[in-house]
Amino acid sequence: MSIIATDIKLDTILQNEEFKDLFQAQETKIEKTEIDSFMSECRREIGKSILQTFGLGMTYDQFKQGGNLTTLHNANNCVFANEEIKQQYTTKFDRKAYEKDFPKMRKELFKNNKIIKDDYTRKHLKKDSRTHIDHVVSAKSIHDNDKARLYMTADQRNDMATHHKNLAVTNGSVNQSKGAKSLEDWMHSSNKKTGYDNATTYGVDVKKNHRNR
């Protein structure tokens, strides 16, 4: 029995479909803060002197171009509020960073379970290196989401990727074949070696995985 992924249905923020709602709420809040900041700057400039139009004009131009405000639009145009946000947004994907806790998880899995079943195929797994832990929604998909990198720290993205509902215990060959693909795409993709789709090739319990998505 698996202790990692008892339910593969992603009914939390882990669902790609729910990324939009999650980040839209955060982005709206951030944009409101930016507008308030801009208005405060305008009032400050006007307060100095209504004749100092260059000061106000410079502030307005800076706001239009991004200045020290970071929105997704600004980030896509390489305009960042500070170096920390720039590094957070531009960092390259490192698979190992999202799998650093896997050795410990697998050790606990082997220790606490007499029988381990593949979350995709329901077949029994061995307590050895052939048993892997897989991100149902791949860590690369989470990392490559622009809003995730801009509005979430590396630790927050890792927490999302390793949420227990986004982890599945599976055979290493399945994990390697699936790679960064979504479970749905991978199941229905043709396997070059067999000519059948991957669900058929690896014996995936399609009904279960459709039902629990």
TrEMBL record:
It comes from the Bacteria. This is Uncharacterized protein. The lineage of its organism: Bacteria, Bacillati, Bacillota, Bacilli, Bacillales. It comes from Brochothrix campestris FSL F6-1037.
